[in-house]
TrEMBL record:
It comes from Columba livia (Rock dove). Residues 1-23 form the signal peptide. This is Putative LOC102083981. Residues 606-883 form the ZP domain. PANTHER family: SI:DKEY-19B23.11-RELATED, ZP DOMAIN-CONTAINING PROTEIN. Pfam families: Ig-like, Zona_pellucida, ZP-N. Keywords: Disulfide bond, Glycoprotein, Signal. InterPro entries: Ig-like_ZP, ZP-C, ZP-C_dom, ZP-N, ZP_chr, ZP_dom. The lineage of its organism: Eukaryota, Metazoa, Chordata, Craniata, Vertebrata.
Length: 914
């Protein structure tokens, strides 16, 4: 490589002179860097010192002063202003360029003014004067430079050796030379459109530059001028200007071939490499191809000759037709750059190459052919990868997003659609950092805990949680800092949910299930058959539900709805209760909680779903009866087992004389256990025995709808646990019976509303909202039309026990009490379809504003005044006044019949609660 040949002393002198004369500043250190590559001035500015600034270059002509560099000037004068692959401004100039001081074709100097301003108008610009020097003496006979914006040929004007070869093509221009003016250079262009002979000054107007130096002439031509032609040489398009320069002075005629030809393409790309091909032999430049000899091929990158291309993985190849340089994409010396094109992320690779080919042919001695070329690959789309390095054991999402060049940065991130700046993200607790993958690539790591509120969580399968992290990265890409978004979704399923296990146990009358409350209603719900086990169901079915901080404890009375009787025998019941744990959304059953116990129970009736009735009847009569003689209506139906006080019957509703009737929504199957008195056969007079007469009515209530829908009773209780409910009512003809008759036959019902038309069925839970009144009707049955019923004392309690406390009086001595927590209001009774004698009915609406009870009972002591009783009915009239009258006639009271009715339970349910 040629280097500066001036003595240090002379340079300094030159410098100092400039500085003092022009009063201009010297460039700051590191701002400008220059070298002499072969015969080209090569100057580079540091882009970092130009950040946010504007700059201009001026060429400093030693005589004419500064000339602003523009594109037109550049191609005519042999200058190039461009950028290297790193974005640093680059200025190149041929030593044969304009305004270059040439000393004997050996020493060259060019001074450039670099103007830097903070304004695009270049106001208040600072000017740095920068002189460059080149020493170049190893000129080849012909030198051709193919620059980015011009082609230049220079030829030594030595008289060539005498040759006998007259076939040389350019000799054909000889006739033209006759007209060449004396002492004037003229140029003859040969192009497809014909020949054109012009003066040097006219050539200058066409963009050419022609001149001579001490020992050379040169022609500089722009690409694609009118006089040029494009032809394909070995598959590469060449732009060619065929010209002859002529000089005539008296007896001297000088004709110089100044033909120049430069490649305009020849680059090709694969995914992994770029290849630049230049023809080895360019026919228009090699007139006698047979004598062509390639002497030297050099390649260079970024202005530097590469002596051993293979060390950098470059490939320099040549054969008779081609010289090829192959550079792997991403190889050292070039630059990868990120960018966004059409919304797609990708990279390009650029490299500044040059090629220098030296050859000889007999006639021309040596030709040095230099091509300088900056090559950029087409946009190569890249798909960034999101790598899932999640650590389930640590409950941590770890995702790597890459691979990116250093010119890509992460500027923001959205997690679960919530945008965060990087600072906010760090502050929130997301970890975000960059790690290098290779010396050039990097990736962004994001760490987010599964338990972060912005992570989506979904309960899946039996005991698993699906954690989903939604990320939307905002990247700043490339030198243009284009914003680009990329979203990713990572999920991880781990079994981190423990399914609850229930514990079941029993006491003498109840079954219990203790179920952990963790996840209840969030992940799963409890179901009784197909019904959600909520507070309403619990109340309706007569269960009790209690919770402590960890468990829900269900108490299920043995004879409550929902209990399955697995085995029922004499005084023994094996009962089971099942609750299903189901997923909240899908209702899929995850687990069955069961409690199963054996109970000893002396008296019960169980109405099985298959229509079988099991009765364990307790018969306490005085004197005791012989249990073996008890029977059902069909006297062939005898007890299956018995002992002194108990008899066990088991029969189907279709047998043993069982009767059926409808009662509201229910079908009631009834039979009767009775005891047959012993009679002596053949005697007309009944024998008086000590055996008491005994009757026990057993009834089973089945919901008519279910029974009808199912068409038949099913024998599998698990699929259809629709047990009926049973009652046993004893009736005795002896003492007990008579005593009953002494009491009034009064019944109470609860009406659905104040019309007193529809009533709640017996054995059906009555549910009321706290604000709804309870409509109570009391009816006197089987009395003569003149009798009149009075509600003497009525009160509300939470229990069916007559003596239970607390109690709230609602009527006292037939009068409504004001100011109590529970208030009764008497509703009028008129004759209607149900009411023949309004005096046999009393109706109350019981309300409260402050419910204290979950279940309430209304108790009433009633009295009946009858005109047919032995005492006059008169004093027993009216309600409130009656008590005063009664007080006045205390004796009357005993004459009136008294009774007691109980209504309830009425469950007070807040529908908001489960
Ligand atoms: C040719 O070079 C000489 C000496 O450098 C110069 O004075 C002259 O202007 C140049 N002519 C053209 C046409 O560039
Ligand atoms: C020379 O190399 C080029 C490109 O590698 C190839 O296309 C051509 O066929 C080669 N020519 C000869 C003569 O081998
Ligand atoms: C990511 O964020 C950008 C900018 O807010 C938005 O345009 C884009 O739709 C988001 N992508 C997804 C998948 O949410
Ligand atoms: C991510 O990694 C976790 C842990 O190895 C794995 O469970 C999960 O299936 C992976 N897949 C996706 C798509 O996130
Ligand atoms: C989750 O359920 C599977 C079977 O469905 C079981 O093997 C596993 O042990 C359970 N894991 C936990 C944590 O409960
Ligand atoms: C809650 O009740 C369950 C079942 O009786 C019992 O096992 C548990 O220890 C109780 N928890 C607390 C905190 O008292
Ligand atoms: C309710 O009435 C009964 C009978 O009249 C009476 O003994 C009792 O004291 C009354 N209770 C209240 C709280 O008023």
């Amino acid at each position: 490589m040629e280097s500066v040949g001036y003595s240090l002393c002379r340079i300094w002198l030159f410098f100092l002179l400039f500085w003092l004369v022009q009063g201009r500043q010297m460039a700051p250190p590191g701002f400008v860097e220059s070298t002499c590559r072969s015969r080209i001035f090569w100057m580079k500015l540091n882009k970092h010192l130009l950040q946010g600034k504007f700059f201009q270059l001026e060429i400093n002509d030693p005589y004419a002063g500064p000339i602003l560099l523009d594109e037109k000037l550049a191609s005519r004068c042999g200058y190039v202003l461009s950028e290297d692959v790193w974005g640093n401004p680059v200025f190149r100039a041929s030593v044969l360029g304009c305004h270059v001081t040439n000393e004997a074709d050996e020493l060259f100097s060019l001074t450039v003014n670099i103007k830097v301003s903070s304004f695009s108008s270049m106001r208040a610009a600072v000017t740095y004067t920068y002189p460059m020097y080149c020493s170049y003496s190893s000129w080849a006979s012909r030198e051709i430079v193919c620059e980015e914006n011009y082609m230049e040929v220079s030829v030594k004007t030595d008289v060539p050796a005498v040759s006998n070869d007259y076939t040389v093509a350019w000799m054909s221009v000889l006739p033209e030379t006759q007209n060449v003016a004396y002492q004037l250079w003229q140029l003859m262009f040969v192009s497809p459109s014909g020949r054109k002979r012009i003066t040097v000054s006219d050539a200058g107007k066409l963009g050419y530059s022609f001149n001579n130096t001490l020992s050379r002439v040169y022609l500089r031509a722009p690409y694609h001028s009118n006089e040029s032609d494009v032809s394909l040489v070995s598959g590469v398009n060449m732009n060619m200007v065929t010209s002859t320069s002529m000089y005539r002075q008296r007896w001297l005629l000088l004709l110089i071939d100044t033909t120049v030809s430069c490649p305009v393409d020849g680059t090709s790309f694969t995914d992994t490499a770029l290849t630049w091909t230049v023809p080895s032999v360019i026919p228009t430049l090699v007139v006698q191809e047979s004598t062509f000899m390639s002497k030297n091929i050099l390649m260079g990158v970024d202005g530097q000759v590469i002596v051993n291309p293979e060390e950098k993985n470059y490939l320099l190849e040549h054969n008779e037709t081609h010289i090829g340089i192959t550079i792997p994409i991403g190889a050292e010396g070039g630059q990868l750059k990120s960018s966004i094109s059409g919304g797609v992320y990708g990279v390009t690779y650029s490299i500044d190459l040059f090629l220098e080919h030296t050859w000889t042919v007999a006639d021309w001695q040596t030709t040095k052919y230099t091509v300088i070329r900056s090559i950029t690959t087409p946009f190569m789309p890249q798909i960034p990868t999101v790598t899932n390095n999640t650590l389930p054991e640590e409950r941590l999402f770890n995702i790597a997003f890459g691979h990116f060049l250093p010119d890509v940065s992460l500027v923001a991130i959205a997690i679960g659609n919530v945008p965060f700046t990087l600072r906010e993200a760090q502050h929130h607790g997301f970890r975000i950092y960059e790690t290098p993958i290779s010396n050039r690539m990097k990736e962004f790591i994001l760490e987010v805990s599964f338990d972060d509120p912005y992570v989506l969580k979904e309960y899946v399968n039996r005991n698993e949680t699906k954690y989903t992290l939604l990320v939307n990265y905002t990247l700043s890409v490339g030198p243009e800092m284009t914003l680009w978004y990329h979203s990713a979704e990572v999920e991880c399923v781990i079994a981190d949910i423990e399914l609850p296990e229930a514990v079941g146990y029993c006491d003498e009358e109840n079954l219990y299930l203790a179920i952990p409350t963790f996840g209840l209603h969030q992940y799963w719900n409890l179901y009784l058959g197909n019904k959600l086990l909520n507070r309403l169901i619990v109340l309706t079915n007569g269960y009790l539900a209690a919770t402590n901080s960890t468990h829900l404890i269900l108490q299920i009375p043995l004879f409550a709805t929902g209990v399955i009787y697995e085995d029922v025998s004499f005084q023994k019941i094996k009962a089971r209760f099942d609750v299903a744990l189901r997923k909240v959304r899908t209702m899929e059953t995850l687990q069955m909680f069961s409690v199963s116990c054996n109970f000893n129970s002396s008296a019960f009736i169980i109405c099985h779903p298959d229509g079988t009735i099991s009765v364990s009847a307790q018969m306490k009569t005085v004197p005791a009866i012989d249990m073996s003689k008890t029977k059902l209506r069909d006297s062939s139906c005898k007890p299956r087992e018995y002992n002194e006080g108990h008899a066990f019957f088991k029969f189907h509703i279709t047998t043993c004389g069982t009767s059926a009737r409808f009662e509201g929504d229910y079908i009631v199957y009834e039979n009767e256990i009775s005891y047959e008195k012993e009679t002596l056969p053949g005697q007309s007079v009944p024998t008086i025995t000590r055996d008491p007469d005994y009757r026990l009515t057993v009834s089973c209530y089945y919901r008519a709808k279910e029974t009808l829908v199912l068409g038949a009773f099913t024998s599998d209780p698990s699929t259809s646990p629709h047990f009926g409910s049973g009652t046993m009512v004893a009736r005795s003809n002896t003492v007990a019976y008579r005593r009953t008759r002494q009491a009034l036959n009064v019944i109470s019902r609860v009406s659905k509303d104040d019309s007193f038309v529809e009533f709640y069925e017996p054995n059906v839970a009555i549910l009321k909202r706290p604000v709804e009144p309870v409509f109570l009707e009391v009816e006197l049955k089987d009395e003569n039309p003149d009798a009149e019923l009075y509600l003497e004392n009525c009160w509300v309690t939470g229990s069916l026990d007559f003596n239970s406390t607390p109690r709230w009086n609602i009527t006292v001595d037939g009068c409504e009490i004001k100011g109590s927590v529970y208030i009764a209001e008497v509703c009028p009774v008129a004759v209607g379809p149900r009411v023949r004698h309004p005096s046999h009915f009393k109706r109350l609406a019981v309300r409260t504003l402050a419910h204290q009870l979950e279940q309430m009972y209304v108790h009433c002591l009633v009295t009946v005044c009858s005109p047919t009783s032995i005492l006059p009915a008169g004093p027993c009239r009216g309600q409130c006044s009656s008590s005063k009258e009664r007080k006045a006639f205390p004796g009357h009271r005993a004459a009136n019949l008294q009774g007691y009715v109980l209504a309830g339970p009425v469950w007070i349910v807040d529908p908001e609660l489960r």
